[in-house]
Structures are given as structure tokens and as C-alpha cells.
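Researcher: Final request for today, and then I'll write up notes for the group meeting. The sequence and the SMILES for S-adenosylmethionine follow.
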Amino acid sequence: MEKLNKFQKIINRIYYNLFIEKFNKKINYNFPDNYFRWDLIKYLIKKYNYTNYLEIGCDKDQLFSKVKIQNKIGVDPFSGGTVRKTSDKFFLENNEKFDIVFIDGLHIYSQVKKDILNSVQCLKPNGIVLVHDCMPDSIGKQAVPRYKMQWNGDVWKAIVDLRQKNNLEIYTCEIDQGIGIITNKKNSSVLKLDIPINKIKFKDYYYNYKEYMRVISINEFKEIF
Ligand SMILES: C[S@@+](CC[C@H](N)C(=O)[O-])C[C@H]1O[C@@H](n2cnc3c(N)ncnc32)[C@H](O)[C@@H]1O
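Model: Predicted protein-S-adenosylmethionine complex:
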């Protein structure tokens, strides 16, 4: 995980507040305290007899080591997993297809959007892409440049942006920092944004996140999937 020095954090915070956005409200999510990303993945593997798993961003294998499946690949340029590369380099050279891709690499909008679009290209027909850290509760947790240790990044923007497309069916499950759920199906609820994505702020997310992200509970998820 990236180390942040104290001085850089202060500079980034001042910069963000002065030039990007200042907004103090905080969201209280209903994340269950007994259901996590590994439980969701286990549920899907069992239900659909999935055999091939790809994880982008593995860190210390907190998740990767818990995923029990026939074939698994973990991509991280620095630690964990099985492949020491960036996600961009991996996707450029990859020819394999996967049942589940879990995206948890560089938590910056443009990179997450690229990781999602590359992942849906290498999904098996009934496959699914999951994206971690989609639901930040405060401005600091999603600020880029980063100024907090506990950080989701602006992953949420990639979900909001892609919710405007016709050919991806996207939800966000309200568990474990918010997990984006993406399949290669017709979008049954296309998002119409009245602000260009490059102008969207955390304040907009705060007031509209349920619609923007198409938030569902774990029980609703299990009714759909
Ligand atoms: C939040 S951690 C992953 C945590 C892990 N997936 C889990 O569930 O606990 C993010 C990881 O992404 C990795 N990372 C950073 N940039 C990346 C990139 N361009 N491609 C793939 N992984 C990247 C970092 O090295 C770090 O280990």
C-alpha cells in the first residue's frame, strides 16, 4: 500500500479544499458487519460453479488467499497475487477468459474505468465484474490527490460514468465499502446525468448516490443473482 508522508497529506488536503471541493457532510451507510467481499465471491462461485478468478490489486492477499476456486490469477505491480505487473500491462498481454474479475487496484477514476472496460472484454458469457471501494462516506475518503490513509478514491465516478452506457448492467451492493456489480447485459436503467462527468463533485454523489450507483442491499443482490 502506498505510504503517505505527513507533509504531502497536508499539502494535498489544502489543495483539494481550495481548488477542487469543500463539503463536510458524511453518509451513514448500512454496511452489514458480518458479510464481506469474500462472502459475496464465495456465494457466486458456489451458485454458478465458477472456475476462473482474476483479482486486480492484491496487496497482502487479504482477499486473494481466501478465494477458493480452481484457477486464480492475482495482478499487482508491488505485492501479493501471482503476476507482478500493472493491470494495463496484464490486460494488454492477456488471452484468458474469467468468470469473476475483482477490481481493487489503483483507486483513481480513469484507471478504474479502464480496468472495468478491459475486464468486461475478458469475461466468460455468464461472468461478472466486481469493483471494490465504490461507496466513500466523506469527501476525504474519495479525494484525489489522496490525503487520508483510509481511502476509497474516486472509484464511484467510474461507476456513475459507466451507468450511462447501454450495454453494461450495473448495480452497487451496500456491503464492505460498496461493491460495484457489472455484467455484459443491456442496461435496464440507464443513468441520465445533468452534469458532465468531469464536473461531478462529492456533493452531487452525497445527494444522489442511491440513483447514481443503483444501490442494492445484499438481499436484493441475491434475488437478482
Ligand atoms: C487496496 S489494495 C488491494 C487490497 C485487496 N484486493 C483486498 O481485498 O484486501 C490495492 C492494491 O492495488 C495495487 N495497485 C496499484 N496500482 C495498480 C495497478 N496499476 N495495477 C494493479 N494493481 C495496482 C497496489 O499495489 C495495492 O496492493
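Model: The chain has one domain: 6-13+30-224. The radius of gyration is 17 Å.
Researcher: Thanks, that's everything.
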